[in-house]
Amino acid sequence: MSTTRTNGQIRLLSVLTLVSLVVIWEVCAQFSPKTALAQTAIIPSFTDIFGRSLLGMADYWKFPFWAPNTSMGGQQTYLGAILALGYHSAVTISRLVMGLAGGFVIGVGFGLVTSWSPVLRQALSLPINMFRMVPLLAMIPLFQFWVGTNTQGVVTFVIVGTGTVFFVGTVNAIANVPVKYTDYARTLGCSEARIYMSVVLPAIIPELLSSISLSLGLAWSAVVAGEYVGIDTGLGRILTFAQFMSQTGRMALIAIVITAYAAASYALCSYASRKLLAWRRPNER
Amino acid sequence: MTLIKFEKFAVEFTLGNGRQFTALKGLDLDIPKGQFVCIVGKSGGGKSTLVRSLAGLTLPTGGKLTVDGQPVTGPSRDRAMVFQEDTVFPWMRVDENVGFGLQGLLPEKKRERIEKWLQAVGLADFSKAWPRELSGGMRKRVALATVFAMGSPVLIMDEPFGALDFVTRANIHAILLDLWRASGTTVVFVTHDIEEALVLGDRILVVSDGRILDDLSCDLARPRDEDVLGSTKAVGLRKAIIGHLGIGRQPMLESADQ
């Protein structure tokens, strides 16, 4: 009983903190200075964000059907705004999923192969650790030259960013598998291939899930940053346009939308983690 | 009939500081089929190296080791091992753990075999449990079921019950002895506990400093209850082992110097 009350109190405290932050933001918005270009508040109010700025999303609906197209003289409508947000969200999320999946397959696959071969592991240790130190966002211009300012460029950028995290996570996770399990499997007559499949792979899942969680944050940053520089669709591109026009309300709205998606993806990851790690104690999942 | 044969068997390790450490010094030992051999001795005396070598997990630097006439060159399903640590795979349910060593069997046969051995160790009702839901003693029983299900002619046990309480250990001893008698397996059992060796073994080897100091026949009547373990013969064996281990004779400083 007392635990339930304590949990409830903690939840209430969290909600109160969030509400307080919203109130502080709104108060600051009322006294906020204006931008030089468009005379918009540097700190936009929530009325602006979920009113004018949300309606303004209709400007990014570029198709001549379902809702008026403002670039063809149509009116801004909430339907257009929702369709535009949905379309650009779908584009961004598809790039994120493709990049994350590619990074997972390449990073984990390469990590498994590298861990299998001590020679390969030693040969790659220094270059990979050096590569990890390279600031990812500073690589965007180079990727634009290499792959182009298009979806492939953004996806490749996410693959490289998350793939490195997955690779390092996999190699470390394999190195941390207790020898007692592999020794035990050997005495049960297991081949090296079966030990890898039935012992090493399940044993590294907890650490791999941590890598996925880490990569998710990185993937969101990478995909938005990739879209921010040059590409003509996606939430990152809306941010760029909004910045050009000093539309702080639209920028805040996109930030809130991305935060909501990121939170949802973390929740999904956490759900998958609970399912995949059913064999662990609840507090260890 | 000799099943396991060590001849001038030696194992050396290179320590982190580059120095050589000899764990086993030219050991000679014959173990007949079906015998329950207990190995006792102080920590660092070579007991675990001996059984890890038998399991094929540690390779010799000298001499020869054969099982059923075949040289040991690595781990094999003919020499199953129960470890000191908890090695039951936590990501597999109890029945999957027991079936792990049963590769190549038809699913029906495999299921039958799993059920039979879970029944034998008293865990039939826990076949779908996760290892985390079991006590330490129950997980050891899962390990026992796993190795006996494989039907290996040699079972190696490296201080498997060291972490269990007295009652749990006594229960699991009874289960182990039942399974051993029924299967005819040759068991090589390492323990630091003299009482455990007296309860289980047909033969007790005292190992210290990489050598076998004594090879004692332990032909006490079974089951070995308090009366048997309090008999003159048992007391004599206990005294002989304690004498070899040098309890109360070696000053701490002398031991530290070595």
Explain the overall architecture.
The complex is a heterodimer of chains A (285) and B (258). In chain A, 75% of the residues lie in helices and 0% in strands. Chain A has 10 helices and no strands. In chain A, helix 6 packs antiparallel against helix 8, helix 8 runs parallel beside helix 9 and helix 9 packs antiparallel against helix 10. By secondary structure, chain A is mainly alpha-helical. Chain B starts with a strand and ends with a helix. In chain B, 36% of the residues lie in helices and 26% in strands. Chain B has a domain of 171 residues: P-loop containing nucleotide triphosphate hydrolases (Rossmann fold, 3-Layer(aba) Sandwich). In chain B, helix 4 packs parallel to helix 5. With 258 residues, chain B is an alpha/beta fold. At the A-B interface, helix 7 and helix 8 of A face strand 6 and helix 4 of B.
Helix fraction of chain B, binned, reads 25-40%
Biggest sheet architecture of chain A: none
The biggest sheet of chain B, with number of strands, parallel, antiparallel or mixed sense and barrel status, is: 6 strands, mixed
Number of beta-strand segments of chain A? 0
Strand content of chain B: 25-35%
CATH architecture of the domain at 2-78 and 152-245 in chain B: 3-Layer(aba) Sandwich
